[in-house]
Amino acid sequence: MNRGFYTIMGAQFLSSLADNALLIAAIALLTSLQAPDWMTPLLKLFFVVSYVCLAAWVGIFADSMPKGRVMFITNFLKCCGCLLMLFGSHPLLAYAVVGVGAAAYSPAKYGILTELLPPGKLVIANGWIEGLTVASIILGVVLGGVFIRPDVAQPVLDFFHLPAVGLTSYAEAAIFLIAFVYLSASIVNLAIPDTGARYARAKFDPVDSIKNFTESCKLLWTDRLGQISLAVTTLFWGAGAVLQFLVLKWCEVALGMNLSEGAVMQAVVSLGIALGAFLAAAKIPLKRSLSVLPMGICMGLLVTCTAYFSRDVAPAGGISMFGGELSWAAIIAGIVMVLVGICAGLFVVPMNALLQHRGHVLMSAGRSIAVQNFNENLSILVMLGLYALLIRLDLSVQATMVTFGVFVMTSMLLVILKHRRNQAEYDSTHLIGEAKRH
């Protein structure tokens, strides 16, 4: 790998680290503002709405100038979103600005790899990028939890004299620090070399762009393998977004944890996903990718059973670690969350690989990524909206988790039945590994 690739990795790590830390800090900010509980999941909804609304144009924007410059602009926009959150704008609207930057950043991040590296290194490069992203998710939620702690936030408020400009809460101190992480990512983006790749100037014509994008969506949804893999990844990202908030709330109600401790438990789920992804990469070839579908049912079942667990049913006491006491309830919950993550990683990684393969065969990598991003983030919008509605209706955390788990199990069962029906009509598995048609 050349120097430019490692620069991209550094910028991607910092940007993703800040994205995940900001979610925790923004939740803390809403809490400090005494916002209603149903508003918390809307943070993620406002973040991903740009992925859906701008899906037909972000790729055009990414190709309009050198990718390093695009990544600089979009990371700087995220930094501006943090400043808006600090100085007067509603947290939801400011987080939406950060989401615009993230939506435009994604196609540039993946597109530059094909410009910078030979085809033989693309699989390795994507593996490094995805592995680094998982690491940044784990560290990001932990970092966000650390930043909002009083013993960290108060010295920041004092050192930078933030009360003088109206910033007094621990959440605001955390967001102030995260803005510097985004700024650091922008500076690293400036060191990304210009690959020299230039594209014919595309028009941002609304009608043609939407028409071409719609045709791409139809092409992938009507493909027998594409529709199965796209359905699974769409369900996964929607469910994963809900699980982010559900784990935090479950930790608070069932385990008596604060937001910082809940963020660590959220990171434990990400660790499980990383383990599942590693197992999938090591044990499941592309030809056998469809064999992992039952793992989605296992994930839903685990979440359903977890709803009935609390510190009251766990053994008393715990073990001493790193100078502190870790309760048996937290240990058991952590093990269950790792298992949930492993199931998720085992079934989504092969499905993602299959989807990328079919997208490459049927259209192009860029177009298929745009379709995938659109569907997955539309799922996030819908499922977070439903989750916010359940909170608004005062449904208990236990009932919400059961509803969520049963929904995942039922959805995955329907996907499995659809695949079996497709296979009964026509064996499509021989298309896995098929060369590009044009």
Automatic annotation (TrEMBL):
GO cellular component: plasma membrane
Gene3D superfamilies: MFS general substrate transporter like domains (1.20.1250.20)
Stored InterPro entries: MFS (IPR011701), MFS_trans_sf (IPR036259)
SUPFAM superfamilies according to UniProt: MFS general substrate transporter
TM segment ranges: 12-30, 42-62, 69-87, 93-112, 124-148, 168-192, 228-248, 263-282, 289-309, 329-355, 376-393, 399-417
Membrane topology: Multi-pass membrane protein
Main location: membrane
Annotated localization: Cell membrane
Signal sequence annotation: none
Alphabetical UniProt keywords: Cell membrane, Membrane, Transmembrane, Transmembrane helix, Transport
Molecular function as annotated in GO: transmembrane transporter activity
The protein's name in its UniProt record: Transporter, major facilitator family protein
